[in-house]
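Team,

Forwarding the record for the chain on the shared tracking sheet. I've put the sequence and predicted structure together so nobody has to dig through attachments.
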Amino acid sequence: MRRTPLDRGSPHTELVRVIRIIPDLEVEDIAAADDFYGGYLGLQKQDLGLDWVTRYLAPAGADVQLVTTDATASTTPVLSVAVDDVDAAHAEAVRRGYEIVHPLTTESWGVRRFLVRTPDGHVVNILRHRE
């Protein structure tokens, strides 16, 4: 796995390679939001097979996820970040002293993830899809 040094003066500090970033918008009712995102904006709905989250895709490649609640975590994230190595990302977040809001978990819907609180208080979902 190839990584990029964060600080060239500190060889043990490395960045996690981000694969994709998707904003998570908390909504009351995904079906009710469909007219706006699918109808009005014309975004393509991607069925994730889950009743609490869905994704809309723009032709340019931008995505947005609508989330009613997180299925296993007590907090709904504002952002989902897919990374190349979620275990390394978790270890680095712990090393840096960031608050882990939801533990590193392999979820039943096919991702390994954890939720971390940013220094400014936002909750971010760090994940890796199973191979």
